[in-house]
């Protein structure tokens, strides 16, 4: 009988998840000062070099274990299949674009509040996953249903629920994932190879 071994099957997704866990742990042991300095974004002077870094690293920080586990559950569930289909470079680009867009728009619209967490990335993965069976000239029903269920709920909650959840980040992440799904699958259909 062959021995079972654990495989490091999805380097980008596992690395991103470990970075999120490390950033959250570092924030916790420093009384959240590391989170404020490196792993959350907010409006800051354009002369502050860390502001530009935080536009990308805010997706690593989390407000606690429950926040971290909630986001990583989606990322670890969906990410490996996405990394296998699109390659780690394309998936890293989706993460970076999601972080940048959500960070910039948040800072412009809500300059007095901080943003942290990978929920925008999780929603990008959700919508990107729904494009796996995309064909030119067709819109898969799954894309429509996923958009209605996930994005519709976030828009509704954003209008009716008062909490510390950034529903706008979820919607923006979902839009990035949908756009990436369309573009990546369209390139493949037209004979272009995906960026690997």
Give a description of the structure:
The chain is mainly α. It has a single domain (11-189), classed as Rhomboid-like fold, CATH 1.20.1540. Helix content is 67%, strand content 0%. The protein has 8 helices and no strands. Helix 4 (65-86) crosses helix 5 (88-109) and helix 7 (141-160) runs antiparallel to helix 8 (167-189).
Q: Which characteristics define this entry?
A:
196 residues; Rhomboid-like fold; 67% helix; 0% strand
Write the layout of secondary structure elements.
Blueprint: H1 11-29, H2 33-38, H3 49-57, H4 65-86, H5 88-109, H6 119-129, H7 141-160, H8 167-189
Helix pairs in contact: 1-4, 3-5, 4-5, 4-6, 5-8, 6-8, 7-8
Brief write-up:
Helix content is 67%, strand content 0%. The protein has 196 residues and is mainly α.
Indicate the CATH architecture: Up-down Bundle
Strand content: under 5%
Q: Could you name the CATH class? A: Mainly Alpha
Task: Supply Rg.
Answer: 17 Å
| Name of the CATH superfamily | Rhomboid-like
User: What's the β-strand tally?
Assistant: 0
Shape: globular
Structural class, from helix and strand content? mainly alpha
User: Low-confidence parts, pLDDT < 50 over ≥5 residues?
Assistant: none
What are the secondary-structure elements, in order, as H or E? HHHHHHHH
Q: Please work out how many helical segments DSSP would assign.
A: 8
In whole angstroms, the N-to-C terminal distance is: 36 Å
Strand count, sense and barrel status of the largest sheet are: none
The figure for the number of domains is 1
What's the CATH topology label?
Answer: Rhomboid-like fold
